[in-house]
Amino acid sequence: MSGKILMLILDGIGDRSVKELEGKTPLEAAETPNLNRFAKEGENGLMDTIAPGIRPGSDTGHLSLLGYDPYEAYTGRGPFEAAGIGMDLGPQDVAFRCNFATLEDGKIVDRRAGRIKEGTEELAEAVRDIDLDVDFKFEKAVEHRAVLVLKGEALGGGVNDIDPHETGTGYHEATPLENSKENKRTARILNKFVRKSIDVLSDHPINKKREKEGKLPANVILPRGGGKVPELEDIQTKHDLNAGAIAGIPLVRGVCSLSGMDVIEVEGATGGLDTDLDSIIDAIIEGFEDNEFILANIKGPDLSGHDGKAKDKIDFIEKIDSSVGKLRELEETYIAITGDHSTPVTVMEHSGDPLPLTIWGEDVRTDDVDEFNERACSNGGINRISGGDLLNILKDLADLTEKFGA
After folding, report:
1. How many CB atoms are closer than 10 A to CB 116?
2. Chain centroid to CA 181: how far?
3. Does residue 257 belong to any structural domain of this protein?
């Protein structure tokens, strides 16, 4: 009888040795009896989401985990963000992921405007009134994030990021990555959009109120990750699986949606540190009523990694651990617990460090590993694999593959 598959993706879980933790990683320093039990009863190893030393984005990382070649399938982050919040994309449209950010004296002082949460819909309404000489859609996403879609013909997706990806410097001018008239047009429109976003946001009542309260204003929009919608083979065709996805962040929801997965709505799954982990676990269990394969992304560890906060990362890992034990109730299910990339608190950005991986199920070949962390899993029987191979391994364990050859 065929089994079922769960990929539990702990976003940004991997880390490096942290001096303040006496050389341990946050995962090693955390108290994780449930994750450790999965490791003790499972088979363990390390995983390079794309390839050794390659720093994956969450988008390219999830593409690889779903068995797509990110070097062929990836067209930019923007289209996945747009799909993740339900925006319609035509084949000629160009989408950008955006941040509400803070500009002072011509320099970016905070790329997330103090991680703004309230008032972004009012700010987005003001941005929608900008005159751009082209049709466009602009929607807020989670917290400081938003999405811009330029609509129509004669637009190119090959422009650089306006977001400088650092503070203390000015934002970048958009320029074509390849010298085509379509890319030049997109660059001109994007530069105009950013200048006008400053005009409409600088004196907006929401920002005046924030400044009075000592908060950073969201007075500029920083686009990045532009691209046109990719052509992905439907996952049902590619893997012959009924597949569902659970994710609090639009980016991962968009990757899964564009691959043809059923995106399962979970009340309280915010993608932030306040996400409702118990509701996510319950939704996973219920989701197997209709699906053979579920991918569930839990974002929290990545946020603490980006903020460089080891203690917060430990605390959230322990919250995860307190919830995941219930997954042991799943019958005839093979569970892979890993991440989509490492986000070391000492780096505060994604890295190419390999991830811990545990595969748990009734008849897996257990090894001598009894803890779920980077160093312990390196001694496991899976050894070191590519993320692009993980789903095939799980399908084979669940008896969901066909023999190759006679």
Report:
1. 25
2. 32
3. yes
Only one residue has tokens 């970016």, namely: 108
Residue that is last in its domain, among 177, 211, 227: 227
Task: Examine the domain organization and report whether 112 and 219 are in the same domain.
Answer: yes
Q: What pTM does this model have?
A: 0.90
Could you give the 3-state DSSP secondary structure of residue 317?
Answer: helix
Burial of 192 (0-12, 13-18, 19+ CB in 10 A): middle
Distance CA 5, CA 134 (A): 45
**Distance of alpha carbon 369 from alpha carbon 216, whole angstroms:** 47
Q: How far apart are CA 318 and CA 304, in angstroms?
A: 13
Whether 148 maps to a domain, the answer reads: yes
Indicate whether 279 and 388 sit together in one domain: yes
Range of the domain at 169: 87-227
Beta bridge partners of residue 360, listed in sequence order: 335
CA angle 14, 15, 18 (to 5 degrees): 160
Helix (H, G, I), strand (E, B) or coil at 46: strand
Please name the residue that has the structure tokens 């993608």. 271
H/E stretch holding 263 reads strand 262-263
Structure tokens at 321: 């651990």
Q: Return the pLDDT at 61.
A: 98
Residue 404 lies in a domain: no
Indicate whether 291 and 333 sit together in one domain.
Answer: yes
* Cβ neighbour number for residue 405 with a 10 Å cutoff: 3
Sign of CA dihedral 129, 131, 137, 143: negative
Q: Supply the pLDDT for residue 142.
A: 83
Packing angle between helix 310-324 and helix 33-41, nearest 10 degrees?
Answer: 60
Give the pairing of strands 107-110 and 4-10: unpaired
Strands 383-386 and 107-110 turn out to be unpaired
- Give the residue ranges of the chain where pLDDT is below 50: none
- The verdict on 138 and 264 lying in the same domain is no
Residue after which a domain boundary falls, among 194, 227, 260: 227
**End-to-end CA separation in angstroms for the chain:** 22
Question: How high is the pLDDT of residue 1?
Answer: 59
Number of structural domains in the chain: 2
- 298 strand-pairing partners: 10
Q: Exposed, middle or buried by CB within 10 Å (0-12, 13-18, 19+), for 16?
A: middle
Please report the pLDDT score of residue 152 as a whole number. 85
